[in-house]
Records
---
Amino acid sequence: MSYAIKECYYTLQGEGAQAGRAAVFLRFAGCNLWSGREIDREEAICRFCDTDFVGTDGPGGGRFVAEELAAHVASFWPGGGSPYVVATGGEPLLQLDSPLIDALHDEGFEIGVETNGTIAAPAGLDWICVSPKSTAELVQTEGDELKLVFPQSDAPPDQFSGLAFDHFFLQPMDGPYQSIAIATTVDYCRANPLWRLSLQTHKLIGIP
């Protein structure tokens, strides 16, 4: 199988329970909730995406087979520590499969995934972060963290609070009304302490 990769780079995780951890980000091209084209945004299930996941033309992007891609990911790690890769997108579970998971493990990587939860996660992943989107059916109902962009009128937090996750995060929606979203999120977390605030710290400090 050939994997379509938008970009691959080394940075710090900016969000959720792993915030601050060094990681190689492996962004897969393609998503099942939006085409990535602005002309289709208003008709998409997920309309607030802030990520370019179209094509394979980003830094470190391209098409790779499993062992080749695992070696490519490893080339970004500076050495030492606990090698960690975050498979993201788009929707990474459209492509991420057992051969690639095995190849990344063979390179010594712990594997995290950031998924919209509409596709069941394959076995072997070390960290599963699910970020539900709007009215999309949630198939992956357990994992390490659930990170809900907030507010979404058709995806209230209490819809997910009984699911089998270790951590529950609310992340203020990015955009022109972010200050309002932050205040609303803070108020909700104060009133509902199951939920913790997640900020996009990578944007705040200006790193990828």
Note: The chain has a mean pLDDT of 97.
---
Amino acid sequence: MLFAIGAGPQVTAVDDQPGYPAELVDLVLTYAGRPIRTALEIGAGTGKATRLFAGAGVAVTATEPDAAMLAELRKHVPAGVETVRAAFEDLRPGARYHLVYAAAALHWTAPEGRWSRVAGLLEPGGVFASFGGPPQLADLAVADAVRAARAPFLESDEIPSPDGTPPGQAMQWPGTELQRSESFTHVQQTVIERRLTMSARDYVGYLSTVLAYLELPTPAQEQLFRQIEQILPETVELCADIVVHLARRRPDQ
């Protein structure tokens, strides 16, 4: 995601969402069990996942409602990627794809009619994929210090499960909704373990894409981000596992 951080006259546009490993696209293509030639991406942001799938030879149509993000995406993706400025809810039935996927973006979509819209964009037997996961500070002492700095502003920065699934349950959202949907079958949840190192500034940049911080008034955001950056070491280690949910559109839908 693209965002602006910093107070005063100098505001910098930064893209600090971690990228995705090649293992992810291999997992999706293996699950499909047949060639994936076309894909629709929901909420493409600045195109990290777009580049991954396009690099694997998939003809990607990347949709994104934010003009600034879409402009940034166009700078970095292959010329063959089609870009559409639109929210998922504004997409109209038309072309159908072998794959529809969302990279850390599905929770931004409206729940009403979500799965019927996804199914309507997929060929029978086509694959839906959702993947992401919030990076967590690996150093518990650093995490505690950030939590203490955050406390006057936010009780928590975690995104609650949209359907109320408890954190400890084996199948997490959106797999839980996919299991209940009449349009999908063969629901699978996989975790790709990942560890990252990030600069303190880039980590604060990542935080500024998190919903809980976005909902704070701008002065409170800036104050909190300055405080967090001051208490962080120069670089931070992150546990950044990617949770992948896969499902197949029923052929008879």
Note: The longest strand covers residues 122-132.
